[in-house]
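**User:**
Everyone, produce one record:

**Assistant:**
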Amino acid sequence: NIFATMEYKKLIVRGISYSQTQSGAYALLLEQPDSGVKLPIVIGNFEAQSISIGLEKDLKTPRPLTHDLFTIFLEEAHYSVESVLIYKFIDGVFFANINFVNRILGNSITLDSRTSDAVAMAVRFDAPIYTTQTIIDETGIILNMDEQDWDNDEPSSSQQKSIEELNKELNNAVRNEDFDLAQKIQEEIKSRNKKID
């Protein structure tokens, strides 16, 4: 599997929550397990429901949802989802590919997809989800930053005090699910840390 190479970072579905900032939208949280960095992706109500149902293997809907129907078709055609790659982020939109493999012939197909659809398919096939380090750096947020990193016995300089305040603002923004604000605060903290280094 080419996506299991070092250049790609594996993501796991950490959860879905109602977006406080966009009415009728949900936030899908994908996490890079090694670093704990999370990618918040705004998705629609239908996709949120479909991903949730896909994660709950025992839960069956009375009639197949669109992603279930596509899954049934793939299985009948002897295809499975091998992996998903979130490969690009432009103007607030994530771009993804779904990689399919034919279990009998061994041939593969890659299709461009909305990230929400790609994740909905990945959870149905227990397929791994990958992204690039660049996307993690550009869009990732850390939800539980360790506050003791900023504590020391010496009197706080104004630089450390500012980072501590930013850290509290970041945690508040995440609690309120204002991921746009959280990302801006995270970028500011990163730039301050680079200056300190």
